[in-house]
Amino acid sequence: MNRSEKIHIFVKVIHEWYRNHKRTLPWRDLEITNDTQRAYQILVSEVMLQQTQVERVKTSYKSFLERFPTVKSLAEASNGEVIHAWRGMGYNSRALRLRDAAREVESEKWKMDNEFFPRRMEDLQKLPGIGHYTAAAIRNFAFNIPTACLDTNIRRIYHRAFIGPEHADGTWKKDDKYLLKIADEVLQVAMKDQTGMPRRTCATWHAALMDYGSLVCTMRSPKWDICPLTQAGVMKSAYRTPDPLPRTAKIRKEPGRMVGSLYIPNRIFRGKFVEELRDEPHGLTLEEVGNRICIDWDQKEHLKWLQSLAEKLQKDNMIRIAEGKVILAK
User: Fold this and answer.
1) What is the CATH number of domain 1-241?
2) Alpha-carbon torsion 128, 129, 132, 137, what sign?
3) What are phi and psi of 256, to 5 degrees?
4) d(Cα 81, Cα 74) in Å, to the nearest integer?
5) CATH: 3.40.50, 2.60.40, 1.10.10, 3.30.60. Which one for 256-328?
6) Residue 6, H or E segment
7) How far apart are CA 216 and CA 218, in angstroms?
8) 179 — phi, psi (to 5°)?
9) What is the pLDDT of residues 270-321, one digit of tens each?
10) What is the rounded CA–CA span in Å between residue 278 and residue 94?
11) What share of the chain is helix, strand, coil (3-state, %, to 5)?
């Protein structure tokens, strides 16, 4: 089959599969007529999903919106209030960037031409913590503006279908610039060929791809036997033999330290550090924090290291250091 035929078959298969396997998620199919509110809720969900599993986000998403129901309420929140509401999500800096993005949206510079939430890619990507994918997702899911985008699942599907399997070490043979061209070409067809689609929107198309990548074309142990793209003959990597390229040893790029025989990145300790302070309104001493987050805590050996973590967290406005104690930011 030629490229055009392959794309049309690809689109038809994804459409039909999604009709029977669509996941129900609280940020999908929002029945909200207010554009700003809809975009805000999509923004919250996308930032939460950046580095957290869907099942955990489903619970946290609801409680976070109960605490901050509008972009204005989040924009007015303090660091401490946002970090408290982010409990259990990890990567706490995301919460502060999300709040900062809300403040940007609330600023007067966006309130022009009867638009109260940025829609252009270049404007969305100026918001704190918003990259190409999140900006494109907001356009697709909040405003129904067809925009090619690549998250982990979508990237994997396009690469395996149109290029081939990833290398054994998990790296890709083609970069995102190349894949975005494919994604845009497929998107143009998907918006015209709506066979089997429950709703005719670019939001539905991208949701279908995400679900397919999560449930069928998974990173590990993809379900080739039940993969309709494989059955349709459009997958280049189905039933693939092991990639001949050797696995490359992972280089320790992140700062951290050894705990027993394991190397633990500092970001893990920082997350635990903040977690311990959430329920301590009067703060803790560094030694108390060390005893709680380090199973091998030794004050003489680890105090200087822990002080450096505290200083970094204070610089990031997540905690404050006062009178010999560390306290969650106000």
Assistant:
1) 1.10.340.30
2) negative
3) 180, -165
4) 9
5) 1.10.10
6) helix 3-21
7) 6
8) -65, -35
9) 999 999 999 999 999 999 999 999 999 999 999 999 999 999 999 999 999 9
10) 16
11) 55, 5, 40
Cα within 13 Å of Cα(79), Cβ side: 15
166 is known as an active-site residue = no
Residues of the chain with CATH 1.10.340.30: 1-241
Taking every pair of Cα atoms in the chain, the longest distance, rounded to a whole number of angstroms, is 72
Amino acid at the residue 269: F
User: Which of the following is catalytic: 46, 81, 106, 166?
Assistant: 46
Phi and psi of 328, rounded to 5°? -60, 145
Q: What is the location of CATH 1.10.10 in the chain?
A: 256-328
Q: What end-to-end distance do the CA atoms of the chain give, in Å? A: 61
Task: Report the alpha-carbon distance of residue 166 to residue 174 in Å, rounded.
Answer: 9
Q: What is the pLDDT of residues 308-318, one digit of tens each?
A: 999 999 999 99
Give the SS3 label for residue 285: coil
User: Which residues share a beta bridge with 257?
Assistant: 264
pTM comes to 0.85
